[in-house]
């Protein structure tokens, strides 16, 4: 056994405290019978909706952020940092503020109104995906730009001598060699999308049976005052969060 030090005691205390807090929620979720089984079904549906929207968001964000991040990692243009800061604004804003910005664009801007009228974005599944993508894109941009900066320029020279263009080298050589890091980035995007509340509520509308994701369901359940149902929903949320963090930790080894 390792030596017992003040630092190990602090770490042990923090771990024990978190375990006790989480155990309280899990115990409550399995020790009591549901007062309304139909509401439990709605929690499951909300969890499934959250997973579905987060998976689509992850795919969309990766498709957009990977080439854009690679471009930023390889350019020395004047104003590059200003452009990157512009694209990263949602990273700093609260999710609610980001959702309101998107909502104003979709209902007040002529282009936004056209898009909303054509694709029915507001108060729909697509609105949730748009909100989550708007929030998750800056995280992916920051992560992948830093990742691609680790690629030595000499490897690009080798790729060019083999007849690969810049994007072709990215997708055929560099990304396969960075697969664990790319998967970690995808998990970060998924986690950001899965945890969104404010922007998804504003764009999706929180319509029962249609656009209530798990974080939104937690808010509504808390308003109902059903503590057992709330514990059940929180347990689902915590388990998925733990799985994401556990997988990310494995990939970082």
TrEMBL record:
Belongs to the binding-protein-dependent transport system permease family. The chain crosses the membrane at residues 7-28, 48-73, 85-107, 127-148, 169-191, 227-251. One of its GO terms (cellular component) is plasma membrane. It holds the Pfam family BPD_transp_1. Keywords: Cell membrane, Membrane, Molybdenum, Transmembrane, Transmembrane helix, Transport. Residues 47-251 form the ABC transmembrane type-1 domain. The lineage of its organism: Archaea, Thermoproteota, Thermoprotei, Desulfurococcales, Desulfurococcaceae. It comes from the Archaea. This is ABC transporter permease subunit. It is a multi-pass membrane protein. The keyword Transport applies. GO terms for biological process: transmembrane transport. It is found in: Cell membrane. It comes from Thermosphaera chiliense.
């Amino acid at each position: 056994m390792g030596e017992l030090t003040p630092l190990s005691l602090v770490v042990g205390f923090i771990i024990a405290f978190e375990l006790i807090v989480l155990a309280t929620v899990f115990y409550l979720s399995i020790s009591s019978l549901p007062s309304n089984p139909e509401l439990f079904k709605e929690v499951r549906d909300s969890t499934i909706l959250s997973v579905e929207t987060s998976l689509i968001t992850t795919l969309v964000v990766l498709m957009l952020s990977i080439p854009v991040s690679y471009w930023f990692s390889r350019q020395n243009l004047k104003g590059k940092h200003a452009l990157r800061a512009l694209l990263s604004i949602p990273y700093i804003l609260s999710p609610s503020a980001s959702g309101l910005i998107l909502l104003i664009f979709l209902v007040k801007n002529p282009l936004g109104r056209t898009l909303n009228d054509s694709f029915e974005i507001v108060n729909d599944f697509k609105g949730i995906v748009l909100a989550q993508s708007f929030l998750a894109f800056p995280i992916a941009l920051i992560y992948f730009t830093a990742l691609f900066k680790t690629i030595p320029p000499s490897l690009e020279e080798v790729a060019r001598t083999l007849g690969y263009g810049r994007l072709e080298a990215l997708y055929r050589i560099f990304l396969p060699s960075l697969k664990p890091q790319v998967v970690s980035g995808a998990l970060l995007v998924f986690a950001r999308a899965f945890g969104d509340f404010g922007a998804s509520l504003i764009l999706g509308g929180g319509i029962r049976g249609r656009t209530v994701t798990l974080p939104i369901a937690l808010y509504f359940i808390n308003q109902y005052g059903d503590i057992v149902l709330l514990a059940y929903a929180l347990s689902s949320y915590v388990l998925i969060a733990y799985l994401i963090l556990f997988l990310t930790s494995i990939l970082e080894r």
